[in-house]
Specification:
Layout (H helix, E strand, L loop, with lengths): L11 H4 E2 L3 H11 L19 H20 L3 H5 L3 E2 L3 E9 L5 E8 L9 E8 L31 E3 L2 H8 L11 H21 L5 E5 L2 E8 L9 E7 L3 E8 L1 H9 L12
Parallel strand pairs: 1-5, 6-10
Antiparallel strand pairs: 2-3, 3-4, 4-5, 7-8, 8-9, 9-10
Length: about 270
């Protein structure tokens, strides 16, 4: 069977009704392997408990729904989002401490309307009784097709249009540096050079991320001193070289990187 909503689905709230979305996130956090889901500061945020997890679930669902909608074969659709006429299920991509996959389970909305086709039930481990009749269990969201895209090739040149990146992202730079544009350009160029040296010494410094619907690698930019990371430089592989696309705040970089996997680089901390 195929999910056929009466109106376009843009996000998870179009897909399903949640009686308490934030309580559902809290429940998910409890069964998932321990992880830092908060930023260093929660100022100005509605969700102060697990905003990274909230971002993760929203983007994971959107990636899966876009793939589901693009497929025409019913069996292939079932591998992305399961649906049997009474319930739906998708793979969150998260695991318990024992590495059991965690799924989001939904039921057909009790009262049919033109708003939301499903109601959220629970987050379940693959061994949960509620999933006994779910087959196949849907797969995780897939963001890459070639593992080589996740590893930085330090033999390739890195090209960065520093002036353009500054113009496009000046609001992301530390406030104490933006007043002197000429000095900032020198600092940024030096930070890019240092990032090149760091990734040449250890390719794991480059963190794979899903940015702007593409696989990129994030490199640390140290503007104040060589031990403190201020921003992340997003680089994308071209034909025989890397090109710097933009720079992101560390919170933005972590959100994008977490879609693929939990970052283990010591410089990228939310």
């Amino acid at each position: 069977m195929v999910i056929a909503p009466s109106k376009p689905i843009e996000n998870i709230f179009d897909f399903a009704f949640f009686s308490d979305f934030y309580a559902s996130l809290n429940a998910l956090e409890k069964i998932a392997a321990p992880e830092k889901w908060t930023y260093s500061t929660s100022e100005g945020r509605k969700n102060t408990t697990n905003p990274i997890l909230e971002n993760y679930i929203h983007h994971t669902f959107k990636k899966l729904w876009n793939e589901y909608s693009s497929l025409t074969d019913e069996d292939e659709k079932m591998k992305v989002i399961y649906y049997d006429g009474t319930k739906a299920c998708f793979n969150t991509g998260l695991f318990t401490e024992n590495y059991n996959p965690i799924y989001a389970l939904f039921r057909i909305a009790r009262y049919a309307d033109d708003k939301k086709p499903f109601s959220f039930c629970s987050f379940e481990q693959d061994s949960g009784n509620r999933l006994n009749d779910v087959y196949p269990l849907p797969r995780r969201a897939n963001y890459f097709s070639d593992m080589r895209d996740l590893i930085y090739d330090y033999s390739l040149e890195l090209r960065a249009n520093s002036a353009h990146i500054l113009d496009e992202n000046i609001d992301r730079f530390p406030d104490d540096l933006v007043s002197n544009r000429r000095q900032l350009l020198v600092l940024f160029t030096g930070a890019v050079d240092l990032a090149k040296k760091r990734v040449q010494a250890n390719y794991k410094v480059a963190v794979p991320t899903y940015y702007n619907n593409q696989i990129c690698l994030m490199l640390p930019l140290c503007l104040h001193d060589t031990t403190t990371t201020d921003l992340a430089l997003a680089v994308q592989r071209g034909k025989g070289f890397y090109v710097a696309k933009t720079c992101l705040t560390l919170d933005m970089a972590y959100n994008d990187a977490r879609l693929i996997a939990k970052p283990d680089a010591d410089w990228l901390i939310p």
